From TrEMBL:
InterPro entries: Amino_oxidase, FAD/NAD-bd_sf, Zeta_carotene_desat/Oxidored. Residues 66-533 form the Amine oxidase domain. The lineage of its organism: Bacteria, Pseudomonadati, Myxococcota, Polyangia, Polyangiales. This is Amine oxidase domain-containing protein. One of its GO terms (molecular function) is oxidoreductase activity. Pfam families: Amino_oxidase (PF01593). It comes from Sorangium cellulosum (Polyangium cellulosum).
Amino acid sequence: MDRRGFLSFVAAGWLVHTAAPARPPLDGRIVGAAHGAGHLLRGGAPEGVARGPAERADVVIVGGGVSGLSAAWRLAGAGLDLRVLELEPRPGGTSAWGDDGVVPYPWGAHYLAAPNVEARATLRLLEQMGVVTGWDAAGRPTFDPRRLCHAPGERLFYRGAWHSGLAPVDALSPEEQGELDRFHALEAELTELTGNDGRAAFQIPLDRSSRDPALLELDRMSMAAWLDREGYHTPFLRWYVRYAMLDDFGGAPEEISAWAGLHYFAGRKARAPALAGSHYLVWPEGNGRLVRELIERAAPRVSLGALATSVRPLPGGRVEVGYLDVARGEARRVEARAAILAAPAFVVRRLFAGGASRALPERVASAWLVANLHVERPVDPDHAWDSVLYEAEGLGYVDARHQLTDLAAGTAQRSSLSTPMQRTVLTYYRAFGGPDVAAARAALLGAPWEALADGVLRDLAPAHPHLRDDVARMDVMVWGHAMPRPRPGFLGPRPFEPRCSLDERVAWAHVDQPGMALFEEAQACGVRAAEAIAGAVGIAIGESWL
C-alpha cells in the first residue's frame, strides 16, 4: 500500500460521525466476506469427525460463485441431485448482490460487456434469459435494448468538473489528446489483429487467442514497461491505463502483464450496429442477476455457510467431500459420484491431496473494498450509471437506480419510483493494486468500519463535498482474495491449455485457470468441468457448450 492508501485506513472516522445538525450519525457495518471461517484451512482441515451417516448427492460442487453455478447449470436437466457447498452467507462469489435497499445493488461485478460470438456459453445463458433476442445476418447476437446501459453512461470528474465519458476531450492539452488518439488508434488495430496462426491476437474466451510467439512475448513484460517502450508518457494517458488495469485486474500497470493489459482494450469484438450507443449489459444488482438466473435454471441444493475441508476419492467409484457447518460448528461429509471444485487454486491444493493439484497455477489474488451507500436523494441531477474521479484512490461508483426498466421482473419496486426523495444505492469500488498484496489484505481485514467508511467519504469528497449529509447507511464488503492478478508470465509455459481434470471423478473450475476474472471465463471454467465429469456420473451431454 502506498502512503496515501495507508493514511486512509488510520483515519479516526471523523467524517462518518459528522453531518448536518438535524441528521443522526451514519449507520453501517462490515458485512463480509467470511474470512475467519475460510482461514481455518490455513493449518490444514479443521479438526472434527463427521458423526452419523454421510449425506448423499450425485455431484458435489464446492463453491457457489459463477464457475460453480455454471457447472450446475450445465448439468441441469439430466436428473442429477446437485449439491453446492458455499462458505459465504450469499451465493454468487464476487457477483453477489444485496436487496435490502429501495433497489437491488451489487456487492461485486456490476456489468457484463456484450459478449463476443465465441463466448458460446454466455450467449446461451443470455438467450435463455431473453437478453439475446436474435441474430443478425452476420451471425452476431442482437440484444434487448432495455438491458443495454442507458445514457448517460460513464462520466469523469476531472479538475473540478464532470465530463461525459472517461476522456475529457475538451479539457486535455493538445499533447495529451494526441497521445490518447494514438492509443485509441492502436486499440482499434489490435482488436482486428490476427496472429500467424490465423487466430485473433486477443480473444474471449482466452483459449481462442493466438499462439503467435511474437504476441505471447508481451506476457514477459509489464503494462507499465510496455507504455514506456511505446512512448506513452502524458499524465492523463498513464492514469487512463492505470484505471483500466485496476478495474479489470485489481493491479497497477507495474503489476499487470502487457499481454493482459492489451487484451483489456482489444479482446472485446462486439461491434454490431445496435451496440453503437452502449456495449454494457447492466442490471441494478449487477451480475447478481446472472447468478440468480443460473440458480433458477440449475435448481441445485445450495448449502450456505459450508466450509469444504477435504475431498478424497473412495473405493467403488465415489468421492467424499468433508465440510464444516460453520454456524453449528459441526463436521459433516457428503458422498457423491463426482465433485467439482470451483475454488481458487490455493484452496484446492489444501482440499485435494492428489498430485494433480500440485500442478495448478500459482496466482496472486488482489484485495478489494466495495461499499454500498444508501442515499436519500440523487447526489446530482445527471444520474449517470458509472461515475469516476480522476486520480482518486478508488474507481468511483455506480448508481443502482440508473437501470430501472425491468419492473416486471421485480428488480425495482414500483412504489419506490414515485417517492419524492428518489432514494438510491451507490456502489463504490476500490482495488488495492500495489505489489504487497499481503499488507493490503491485512490492513483491510484489520481496519474498523469507521476507518473504511471514512476513507470512502474522503475519496468522493472532491466531487461530492456534502455527500455525508445524504447518506443514511454505508455497509462495507472486504474481498481479501477478490480476483487473480495476471502478472507478467501468467500465461505460463503452455498458454491457453487450462487444467481441468484432477481425477477421473474430480474436476477443477475457477478463473485461476485462465488467470482473468471475466464472467465469460468463469462460466467457461464451470461448463468445462461439468463436461469433464459427465461420463463419471453416467450422462451423455452431447455437443460441448464451449
